[in-house]
Amino acid sequence: KDLARTGVRGTPRVGFPIAELVEALERLTGAASEQTAVLAGVGRLGSALLGYPGFRRQGLRIVAAFDAAPERCNLVLAGTPVFPASTITEKVMRLGVPLGILTVPAERAQRVAEQMVAGGVRAIWNFTPARLEVPEEILVQREDLAVSLAVLLHRIQERSV
C-alpha cells in the first residue's frame, strides 16, 4: 500500500516494474532533481559536510564554500571551491543558490545569514547554536548538536533505570 503513492501499478505475485518504480520514488523524494547549496565556515564541521557523500545521493550539491580565514580560501576541498567570506552575497546571487549551510562560529552566524539572504538564499541549514533572525519567508532548519546529545543521553539513562 505504501507504494500506491508512486502511481506505479504492480502485478500480484509478480511485483513492480523496478525501473519505473525507482523513477517514481526519485520524483517523490526529490532525488531526481539536483539542488545546489553554498556552505559558510570551512572548519572541522564544514569540511566534514563538504566531504559527506550522502548529500549527492539525496540530490544536493555544494557548489561553493566560504571562510573568513585567508589560509582556507582559494582552495578546493572535496571538489568544492572555497572563497573569501566577503564574497558570499555576490557569489550566491550569481550562482542562484537556494540553500545556505552555516557552520561558522556562533558570533558570526547572524551576519553570514544576512549575507546569504541578501544574495537570494531561500533556506538556511544552521549548524550553529545561534538563533537567527531572518525574514519570515526564509526557511531555517537548526541542527543543535548539544540538544541532540542531551536527548540521546537522557534516552540512555531511561533505559538503564
Automatic annotation (TrEMBL):
GO terms for biological process: negative regulation of DNA-templated transcription; response to redox state. This is Redox-sensing transcriptional repressor Rex. It comes from Candidatus Spyradenecus faecavium. Residues 30-131 form the CoA-binding domain. Signal peptide: none annotated. GO terms for molecular function: DNA binding. Keywords: Cytoplasm, DNA-binding, Repressor, Transcription, Transcription regulation. The keyword Cytoplasm applies. PANTHER family: REDOX-SENSING TRANSCRIPTIONAL REPRESSOR REX (PTHR35786), REDOX-SENSING TRANSCRIPTIONAL REPRESSOR REX 1 (PTHR35786:SF1). HAMAP family: Rex (MF_01131).
